[in-house]
Amino acid sequence: MKKTGLVVVVILLVLGGAMSIRAMQHTPDASARVERVNVAVDADIAARHLGEAIRFRTVSYQNEADMAVDQFEGFIAWVKRTYPEVQAAMTLTMAGQYTLLYRWEGSDPTLAPILVTGHYDVVPVIPGTEARWSQPPFAGNVSNGMIYGRGALDDKSAVVAQLEAATVLLRDGYRPARTVYFSFGHDEEVSGTRGAAAVVDILRGQGVQLAWTLDEGSFLFDGMFPGVTTLLAPINVAEKGYLTLDIVASSEGGHSSMPPVHTAAGHLAQAISALEDNPVPGGLDGLSGAMFDTASRYMDFGYRLAFANRWAFGSVLENQLSRVPFGNAMLRTTTATTMLSGSVKENVLPIEAVATVNFRLHPRDSVEDIVSYVKGLVENEHVKVRPKEGGNAASPVSDWQGPGYASIGQAVREVYGDVGVMPGIMVAASDSRHYGQIADDAYRFNPMVVTQEDMTGFHGTDEKLAVDTLAQGVRTYVRILRHGGGNGVGQE
Question: Which end of the chain is more exposed for a tag (fewer CB within 10 A), N or C?
Answer without folding.
Answer: N
